[in-house]
Amino acid sequence: MHNAPKNLSSYHKALHESLENAFLRKALDKFAVDYRASRANIFKDVPERELIAQIAAAKDRSCKRMDELFQQFKKEAEKRGAKVHFAQTAAEANEIIARIAQENKVKKIIKSKSMTAEETLLNHRLEQDGLDVTETDLGEWIIQIRNEPPSHMVMPAIHLSRDEVAEDFSRATKEKHGNDIGKLVKVARRELRRKFIEADMGISGANFAIAETGTIAIVTNEGNGRLVSTLPKVHVALIGIDKLTPTLEEALTALLVLPRNATSQRLTSYVTWIGGATAVTGAEDGKKEVHFVFLDNGRSGLAKDPLFSQVLRCVRCGACANVCPVYRLVGGHKMGYIYIGAIGIILSYFFFGRDKARVLAQNCVGCGACSDICAGGIDLPRLICEIRARLNDEEGVSTEISLLSSVMKSRTLFHTLLKFAKFAQRPLTGGTPFIRHLPQMFSGEHGFKALPALAPASFRERWETIRPNVPNPQRRVALFAGCAQDFIYPEQLVAAVRLLAAHNVDVDFPLEQSCCGLPLEAMGQRAVAADLARQNAKAFDSVRYDAILTLCASCASHIRHAYPSILGTDSDAFRARSFSEKTTDFSSFVHDVLGLDAGHFVNKGQKVCYHASCHLCRGLGVRDAPRALIRASAEYVPAAEEELCCGFGGSYSVKFPEISAQLLDKKLEHYAAAGASRLVVDCPGCVMQLRGGATKKGMTLTVTHLAELLAENIK
Amino acid sequence: MTESTQPLVDAFKEKAALVAAQVSEAADLKEALHRVVQICEEKAPCELLAPEPGTKSGPLSENKLPTRAQRIIAAPGLSAEDFAVLEKACEAKGFLCIRGGLRNYLAGFDVGLAWADFAVAASGTCAVPTTDEEVRLATMICESSVLLLRKSAIKPDLASIAQRLREMQTTDNPEYTTFITGPSRTADIERVLAIGVHGPLELHVILLEG
């Protein structure tokens, strides 16, 4: 019943099915918008960032001493009559639980929700022994009836409509039910109460395992966790060893974030703390059997990995799916394998192997919405890139990618090829700045936006003629152009140079600079990305400049965040670090450093919207500067979901055009509704996507870089 | 009541109301127990969710389920003395008042009464010691869960109850504690909130001085 895509073409087909599912699209779209608002509201009364940092630090400490915590937990729990087991693998865990069932002559089992049991495929194993297993979480019960996997870690049946649930319940109970949600819930209450009463074993998961007290905690809303652990004589909890925490305090801190992130609640209806085998009135001997089964299944290996150990911070809140623009379009059955969302992509690689992760790992647009809200502060998009790199190392790459890599290694080769391409494209552009006649490979699904042509003269070719003469400069900056602006949109850089020079900033443009390397990193081409980082660090003698400016949010974010770690302890690392630290995005420099405000611009009152590029608002945390600059030079018109990804994502829009196009549509809808005549962006990649889409749709919206708006309105 | 408890009481009431808990105050335990009987009297008859041979049933519920003819209040956590007061009040109404053998009524009963040990104002949460299985059943099988809470036991936040929770969990005996924040709920179908899935349909908290 669990399926992972086998290859890209079957995956595209599956994605299409989801994109055409009108109910799913509407439901997830509404959820994405509602969730963002309710989450923001519920976090108002706690210090979100501080708590997330605390959780991350505590989890990092715990995962270094899981063995020790396990031993302590075992000792404490066994003092109070619980039996504690350790399973190295999923199969071992399932065997232990099957044996407990056998020893207690169990026939009927009730379960409360456990992602860990999904991970081990426990139900399949128990059903092999002829055991009757019933899921009691409402969502889990619905998908069990349908024989489907969960499509969300917290709301397993979010992909289904009330009509579908009514049909499923009618079939399961052999009785006709209408689609009233309140009544359907009551059907489950009645049907499952009987199952609770009849069961002789209950299986749950656990959200925390506290070593100092030997207690587990289960976080639920429906109350089934309490019934599962109380009514049957035998209770088994299956727990990942990553749930071990030294003291109650860590759990209580995490409880401030987990329910808020998962379901926008201050606390769930129930938090159940179970410490040992309490007396049971239902059994003849009055004795309860409580078994805590701990599962490793690769976790202790992960804990040793310097980069991936952070995966163990995951509290399974599911929020990374809630904010993922791709999940919003295609749902959890297409965006994960057992575990859903960004964390699902990563866990699939470690828990279920390369086969399950290979295709899924490609489907991340890299917008960073997930890492921005992760309860454990996990850098999810970076880890997904890293998995692509590992897959490439393990399995090799396609001819296209290796060819591209060898070109990118040499700046002169790359730039010479671009020069040739400029002449070669003439028959395709018809003299316009767009590619008018698409080669066959770019037609069809790729035709959702007008593709830009290469500029007649690149910025580097024009540099000597536009280089400003600033007699008494107050500041000195160097421009890092990035490929898109150097070769496609040099006018954006020209505008910036004009604005800077007008405010006494001397500008330099080191010609040895090359691609920042982000596209290569995103394709998992780590070695070439590192090579490019080295070349760029060398091209800029950073001590000579007050700042290194880039008008591309993606380049800026990559240089700032990735350069130091990509080069690591490399001999060029020091130079790269200094280059990285000096790198500043355009808006921050102009607004925060130069201090440009309304007094510096002629404001003609043009109505201007803003698209917040992922790499700027989340990547660099720059939110106010660009909006303040728009207000200073025009009339800022707020639009819905300004921070939602436009769907470009570099090579993502080529790999998943069907998704990229839908993301773009959503953005353009919002800007059309806002009613502005111009849309400004701080990133040439987003300009390419949004201008291409607006042009293709024949919208009157002008899409430019923010620098162009500012340069046009210099006082 | 001291001045310092009032802000916590107010915060608790506000947050509990946000999760559909019904909070009221009582001058003393006698008044509180009287309110419990009133809650039982005013609610719809209890649905029988499973067959219970020998039990007299009343008219079908709106969900077309048989209902319990005689109302039941379960109060296993009360002292013998307090239970006697409640029992007497129940007798007057013709309700059955029980303090043990709750497993005989797993199809559902009307009201479950229990003492909360402490509460958390920041989330409107009550911490209920439920190591005694009868108390646990009282708080989960009932349709209306009523918790008694002393105002002085309301603490500001989760961090401030860590030590108390630790003490409860590190005795020599097995232990089971439940944090309760509002009635049982789900949003598993189309994210529409529905109250009363497997647990109580209502949660009442009665605040007592002291």
Uncertain runs of chain A: none
| Strand order across the largest sheet of chain B | 1-14-9-6-4-5
DSSP strand tally of chain A: 20
CATH architectural type of chain B: 3-Layer(aba) Sandwich
Shape of chain B: globular
Estimated radius of gyration of chain A: 28 Å
Basic shape of chain A: elongated
Span between N and C termini of chain B?
A: 7 Å
* Number of separate strands of chain B: 14
CATH fold call of the domain at 43-300 in chain A:
Rossmann fold
Q: How far is the N terminus from the C terminus of chain A?
A: 65 Å
Oligomer: heterodimer
| Beta-strand residue percentage of chain A | 5-15%
Largest sheet report of chain A: 6 strands, parallel
Integer count of domains of chain B: 1
- Which superfamily, in CATH terms, is the homologous superfamily of the domain at 43-300 in chain A? NagB/RpiA/CoA transferase-like
CATH class identity of the domain at 43-300 in chain A: Alpha Beta
Q: Which key phrases capture this entry?
A:
heterodimer; A: 715 residues; alpha/beta; Rossmann fold; six-stranded parallel β-sheet; four-stranded mixed β-sheet; 37 helices; 20 strands; 51% helix; B: 210 residues; 5 helices
Account of the 3D structure:
The complex is a heterodimer of chains A (715) and B (210). By secondary structure, chain A is an alpha/beta fold. Among the domains of chain A are: 109 residues, no CATH class; 258 residues, 3-Layer(aba) Sandwich (Rossmann fold), CATH 3.40.50.10420. Helix content of chain A is 51%, strand content 12%. Chain A is elongated. Chain A starts with 7 loop residues before the first helix and ends with a helix. Chain B is α/β, with parallel strands linked by helices and 210 residues long. Chain B is built from five helices and 14 strands. In chain B, the strands form four sheets. Chain B has a six-stranded parallel sheet, sandwiched between helices. A four-stranded mixed sheet of chain B has the order 10-7-8-11, covered by helices on one side. Chain B is globular and about 50 Å long. Classes of the chains: A alpha/beta (715), B alpha/beta (210). Chains A and B meet through α2, α8, α10, α11 and α12 of A and α4, α5, β11 and β12 of B. β9 of chain A pairs antiparallel with β11 of chain B, so a sheet runs across the interface.
